[in-house]
Amino acid sequence: MFEKFFNIFSHDIGVDLGTANTLVYLRGHGIIINEPSVVAVNQKTDRVVAVGNDAKQMIGRTPAHIVAIRPLVEGVISDFEVTEEMLAYLFNKARKISKKMLPPRVLIGVPSNITNVEVRAVRDAAKSAGAREVHIVEEPMAAAIGIRLPVKEPAGTMIIDIGGGTTDIAVISLSGIVSSKNVKVAGDRLNNDIIAYLKNEFKILIGDRTAEDIKIAIGGVGEDRDDSAESAVRGRDLITGLPREVVITDSDIKEAIAPSVRQLIVAVKEVLEHTPPEILGDIMKRGIVLAGGGALIKGLPDLLREELKIPIFIAEDPLTAVARGTGIILEDIAGYRDILITNEDELSPIQQS
After folding, report:
1. Is 149 known to sit in a ligand binding site?
2. What is the mean pLDDT of residues 244-263?
C-alpha cells in the first residue's frame, strides 16, 4: 500500500556521481542532467553561488572570497557539506521536472572496492540532501547493465569504465563481480600529466581546463597514430612570468600520458591474471567493453587490443553508460537487489557482526 502511494507521489532518481561530471537519470524521463561536479561557494557567507556548468566556468577566474570546489576526489567524497549541497541542487531540479512532491528514492553509482566508510558517506550525503531511500551500486556493474551486457548469465563479461578520477576494471558473471581493480589512472591523471609535461618541456604553466581541452582536441595513444595534429596553447611563461603561446603536437601529448596509459594496461592484465580460466575463455570470445569518457581517447582500443590479444569494443554512448544502468535498475529494483551494495542500516545485529 505504502509502495503504491510513494510511486504516485514520489520519483526515482539514478545518479552517476562522478569526479568530473555528475549525471542524473529520472525514471520516466531519461537522463535529465549532465553537468560538471563543481560547486562555487562564497566563503564570506558560506552560501553556494553556482553548481555544475555555471560553477565550472568560474574555475581559475574567481575573486578571493569565491572558491570553485570539486567535492569528489578520485571517485569518493572529499567535502561532505559541498557534496550535500550539490545533491540537493540536483534533487530539486529533478523534482521540478517530475512535479512530484515527496522525497525521491535514489540509486547512486560509486567506484568498485571503496570502503564501507566511503559508502556510508555517500548514503548520508544523499539522505541529508533530501532522499527518502538510498541504494548504492558499483559503477562497473551499473555500466555493464546500462550497455545491456548479459550480467545475469553464467558466463564472463569484462568492462573497463574509465572515468574522471578512477578507472574501474571488472569481470562480471551471475550478477556478481568475479575480479576487479580500481586504479587512480583516469581523466584527471592524464590532465595532470599534460600540465607536468608542458611545465618541464616548454616551461609554460597551464590550468586544468586548458589541459582537458588539449586532451580532447589532440590527445591519443598508440604507435601508428598520425603525428600531424597540433594545437596552440596559451599559458604563463615560468621564466618571465608573462603570457606565452606555444604550439604542441599530438606526439607531445602521447609522450606525456604514456606512463599513465602503461599503468592502466598493467592493471587490466592483473585483473585478467586473477580471473578463472573458464571465464577467461568467455572474455576472449566476447571481448572487453570500454565505457566512460576515457573510452573516447584516440587509439586506446587499438593499443589494448594489441597488448591483450583480446577484442576491444567501445560502448555506445560510453559517457552515459552508468546513468543508463541506474535507470534500468530502478525499473526493476527488486530484480536487481542482489547486485546492490547492502545497506548496513537494513541488516540485523547478527548480520552486522
Report:
1. no
2. 94
Residue 87 assigned as binding residue:
no
The verdict on whether residue 213 carries a ligand-binding annotation is: yes
Among 12, 35, 11, which residue's Cα sits nearest to residue 23?
35
241 annotated as a binding-site residue: no
CATH for 46: 3.30.420.40
Residues 72 and 138 grouped into a single domain: yes
Q: Is 214 annotated as belonging to a binding site?
A: yes
Mean pLDDT computed over 223-243: 83
- Domain span including residue 79: 2-142+321-352
Residues 37-52: tens digit of each pLDDT: 999 998 888 888 899 8
* Residue corresponding to grid cell 606565452: 244
Q: Which three cell numbers stand for residue 107?
A: 540509486
Q: Is 174 annotated as a binding residue?
A: no
210 is in an annotated binding site: no
294 labelled ligand-binding: yes
Instruction: Give yes or no for residue 223 having a pLDDT over 80.
Output: no
Q: Check whether residue 154 and residue 232 sit in a common domain.
A: no
200 is in an annotated binding site: no
Q: Residue 349 above 50 pLDDT?
A: no
Establish whether 166 is an annotated binding residue.
yes
104, 10 contact by CB (below 8 A): yes
pLDDT band at residue 185 under the 50/70/90 scheme: very high
212 annotated as ligand-binding? yes
Identify the CA nearest to 107 among candidates 26, 49, 197. Answer: 26
Name the residue with cell 576515457: 294
> Are residues 135 and 205 located together in one domain of the fold?
no
